[in-house]
Amino acid sequence: MPRRDPSTLDLFRDYAPAPVVPRFDADQVKAWTPARRLSRAIAKTLDECGRSREEVAAALSEHLGERVSKATLDAYASPEKPHAISAQRLAGLVVVTGDVRPLNTLLNEAGLIVIEAKYEALLRREKARELREKLDREIEAADAQWKARR
Fold it and tell me: Model pTM greater than 0.85?
């Protein structure tokens, strides 16, 4: 095993690539129900976005073209209040804060994720490759069966 030179810096020692899919750690949004997990995710987003809830409410109101108050945001962020955020307002919150993690928290139950649109072509390519591999296996199986019966 090669020895490491102690005088040479390890450029990748502290490198951690950014996550492909932004998510909250499970402990950050831990709750008994999906609705409460979403409320915790909204609260975390509002706490980490770098803007006050009043500022977020104003930006969300402008984005949606309807009034959204700080009190409404507080209700959405509280797992104890029975106020569920609408899909339109959740999408607006993602746009205004730039944080997609609440959507990924919501979609986790369905086994889905949100990804940037720029990756759609790559996903389509990979799906096509999987389909091509499946067709190649079917062709090979049919060829083997044909040769075996001759």
Answer: no
